[in-house]
Each structure stands twice: as structure tokens, then as C-alpha cells.
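Issue 218. Parser rejects a valid record. Input:
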Amino acid sequence: MIMMACSLLSYMDRLTLGVLYPTIFTKLNLSVQQYGWIVFSFNLAYMLTNPAWGAILDRVGLRRGMALAVALWSIASGAHAAVSGFIGFVVARAVLGFGEAATFPGCMRAAMDWLPSHQQSRGIAVAYSGLTIGGIITPLLVTPIALAYGWQAAFIVTGSVGLLWVALWRWTVNFPAAASARQTARITFPNPLERRFWSLVASYALGALPFGFVQNLASPYLARVLGFTQAQLGRTLWFVYLGGIGYFFWGWIIDRFAGGNKRPSGLFFTLALCGLPLIFVPYVRNWIVVVCLFFWATFVAVGFVILSLRTSALAYPKEQSGLVGGIGSGSWAALVGLVMPSLGHMFDLHHYANAFLFVGIVPVAGTLCWWALTMPQPER
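Output the parser choked on:
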């Protein structure tokens, strides 16, 4: 449960800036394109340091490694309160991304170290479920604080809660002796010349792009186009992030209907088609429908995450399952970071239809790439 709280806190710190977008960026006179570059700095640091944190946790253990990571990102979160311009936010987000890159390697390592084999999958699901809970409570928590005491206070609160987690982690968790004595694992690097590498990148990064888009740009869209106030965003965004319950739904569907299928083309194409309604958001003026479309896009996108990891885990040796997760999340973070400045520029120019069309079509392209890359090779 304490690792679930860790992933919850990481998502709170990650989402607070987007939730408070109308207040912060209006007062500081920053553009959506600049916001895109700020998101890019987080994703770049997050992508580059995911493998590094895996190695650090293997070397120093969970007790010290996770305490260091959460303390670092909590300080970075609190430091947002002292920022007053574009460069400051870029630096603060980069440090936040560096620290938060330890979250999922830590969750995976905790489940492997602490639970018997027949409970490890459930343990991973519980640890990762903090994402969904964090997405739900962040708008409900930080918005009233920001409205009552200023947006800086929201970052001080989230940073302080992270430091409280570090104290609980250090002084209440009973670390198994076997885990603390575990030897450093052999580090394996991905081979970009393999088809299985690119099939994972295509299905995960391209398929789940709408998740990153909604996570970062739902708030600016609702504020700029539909005129949402900060208070209205606080009462609404939790439902958008509730789409993360798709992790559990798609996990059940995939286990039930895909099983050990290494090439579940039907499920991939179903997900691609289910994500297309996002394209129609710019043509809708009813805010309830727009919010539901954002929810649906998130719900479908996390299906790509589960399905791509499941199929790729069958393509790689079992001992490289951590590598599979690293390739997937790293490639997704890289893609989101790369496209955010351009998408932000489209928002500044009010070219919303182009932005939504691009994000809606990319998962279809990713599915076609995955299908081509996983076609059986002729025997020689």
C-alpha cells in the first residue's frame, strides 16, 4: 500500500501544474507553446533516467533509493512555488522528472521482492493504481488550496506531503532481509536493431499518445475554448483522469481473450478504432460531451499500455521484463515530450482541429506499424 501511495504522490506532483494552468499561465503571461516546452523538459528527464534509477535501486536497495528519489522530486515540486518565469519552470520540471523516473522501477521491484510469485501481478496492479487515484484527487485537492491561498501554496502542500511519505517509508516499512541482501542484477540494454523493439515502441508510444495529450492539454483546452474557470476545472478534471480505470478493465479483457497470444491483432485494431472519437472534440460545444470524450480517450489509451506490454513480454525472455517496461515508458515519454511544443503552438494559433486529428490518427498508425513488424518472417 505504501508503494501505491508513492505512485499516487508522483501523479499528484506531475498533474498539479496542468490542473492550475489557467491561474499560473495567465498571471505569468506564458503561452501554450511554452507550456509544451515545460512538459518536454519533464519528459526528457523522465525518459533518460528511467533505466538509471532501475540500476540505482538494484545497487543501493529500495530503502535508500526510493527515499532519495521521493525526497528529490518532493523538493522539486515545492520549488515550483518560488518560480516566476519560463526558465524556472523548465528547470523545476526537469528535476521533478528526474526524481519521478524511479516510481515504476520501484513499484516493480517492491512487488518482486516482497510478494510470493502467485501474488506479484496483483501487487504490481495495486502499486500502479496510485496513478488513477492521484488523477482523481489532484484537481479536488489542489484547486481549493490555490483559490484560497494562491497557486504557490498548492505546490508547497504537495511537496510537503512527499517528504512526509519519505519519513513514513524510512521509519515504518519492514524491509525483508532477503530484499536488502539481494545482489545487483545484470543490466541489459535494448537492441534498436530488433523488430520486437520497434513493435513495442510503435504499440506503446504511438498507441498511448492520447493519454499524454489529455493529461497535459485537457486543462488548457477547457479553459481557453470552453471558458472553464479554475474552480470549474477543479470540479471536472477528476472525471477525465478517472479514465485510468481502464488499466483494470483492459487487463481483465486481455487475460480473458488474448491469453498467450503473441499477435492479438483484433484487440489492437479494436483499440485503434475506439480511440478515433477524440478527433471530434473541436466540433463539440457541450462541455459534458467534451469531458466524456477526454475520459474515453484516456480509458482507451491505457489499453494500449497493457496490451503492448503483455505481447512484448511474450517476445522477450522473462528475465528481461523490466527492460520491456523501460522501453515502453521511455519511448512514450520521449514521444509526448517531442510533440508537446508543436501541439502547444497549434493551440496558440487556435488550430485545435489539426491537433486533435493528429493525436487521434497516431494510434492507428502505431497499430499498423505493430501489425507489419510482427508479421511472421518467411523461413530461410
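Fixed in the parser; the record now loads. The two ends are 51 Å apart (CA to CA).
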